[in-house]
Amino acid sequence: MFESLADLVAFRLLGLDPASPLGAAVQFFVQDVTKIFALLVLVIYVMGLLRALLSPERVRLFVRGRPHWQARGMAVALGAVTPFCSCSSVPLFIGFVEAGIPLGVTFSFLIASPMINEVAAVILVGVLGLKLAALYVAVGLVVAWFGGIAMQASRPERWVEDYVWKIRMGEAAAIERDTSLWGRHRYALAEVSAIVGRIWRWVLIGIAVGALFHGFVPTGWVTAHLGGHAWYTVPAAVLVGIPLYSNATGIIPVAEAMLGKGVAVGTTLALMMSVAALSLPEMLILRKVIRWQALALFAGVLAIAFTLVGWAFNLMA
Amino acid sequence: MKKFKVLGSGCRNCEITANVIAQAAKEAGVAIELEKVTDMATILGYGVMSTPGVVLDEKVVHSGSIPPPDRVRAWVRG
Prior knowledge:
CATH superfamily of chain B: Glutaredoxin
Strand content of chain A: under 5%
Number of strands of chain B: 4
Distance between the termini of chain B: 12 Å
Radius of gyration of chain A: 21 Å
CATH class of chain B: Alpha Beta
Distance between the termini of chain A: 31 Å
Oligomer: heterodimer
Order of helices and strands of chain B: EHEHEEH
Helix content of chain A: over 70%
CATH architecture of chain B: 3-Layer(aba) Sandwich
Helix content of chain B: 40-55%
Largest sheet of chain A: none
Number of domains of chain B: 1
Strand order of the largest sheet of chain B: 2-1-3-4
Number of strands of chain A: 0
Order of helices and strands of chain A: HHHHHHHHHHHHHHHH
Largest sheet of chain B: 4 strands, mixed
Largest interface: A-B, 29 and 27 residues
Number of helices of chain B: 3
Strand content of chain B: 25-35%
Number of domains of chain A: 1
């Protein structure tokens, strides 16, 4: 459906040649814009109706007081279904510390949350297919699990700013909720406008980058340089991803274009995870609660994890 | 007079939330007191981790997003 619509717009309406770089790019752009935004609205609306989206306050209550492995499992799993704006990173971090949740578990949550979410997962299935979607989610969960353990081993407590330990959190107030079908519908609509309003720029930029890659980068060059034979393409992809930031959904069309041109799966996964999980703005925000040593370590642990994952998949392919 | 507090570290959504409340009060012709709280200890003291949060007469009525306009109108009038 989206493909024929894109064909119509690019080749019939605009009269572009399907074999030309511009034609291919425009076709890709129209197809992905319509498909991804339709999926986004649909998925967020359904999640809103079911009230399947958790708030960080509830995650904190679930996780606190659990033994380590259980807390980590919950932090990773709940991180994947808890959307939160990076501007909430600081209160979230302090709230977890105050609840006595180990820092390593909090880091597991901070890794899982931006990298995986159910919205991105559904769009991954729609754009890249079930197999790659499952692969991305599984790898993300594993990296979040072990990334948190690696952070814990370095005793990050010594780097937490002093004032954080002194803050006491109040009882989370139960906010009244309208649970009628009408109330759920309105809540779902509000969620759609809030989340789409927050991420549409990243998604649009991602689609534009994907379209340019799809249309203008020659396949021969890609197979020669990014086909997965050279070991350095994976760490290079991770390094490129660190200063770049996008929402997890925004990076999907880029991955689609890369895979379509024959970039190795491991290299593509490494770039996706690096762009989604490692973000400079979020690091700067977290600097308010923890010293830069911990943040450097956090970035280092993730960069190494993504590189290992990329290599592993390129070797298996 | 109703006392509103917007909890948030000064992010864009917190600004918007404060503006939405001020606007709704103006439209309804209701005088309100509106305060922006940026101190983390105070924000967490209200039990709020996801900002922006809204406190009405010392009770948390919303957190985690810009509140929908009809809810803001209900708070102002109610």
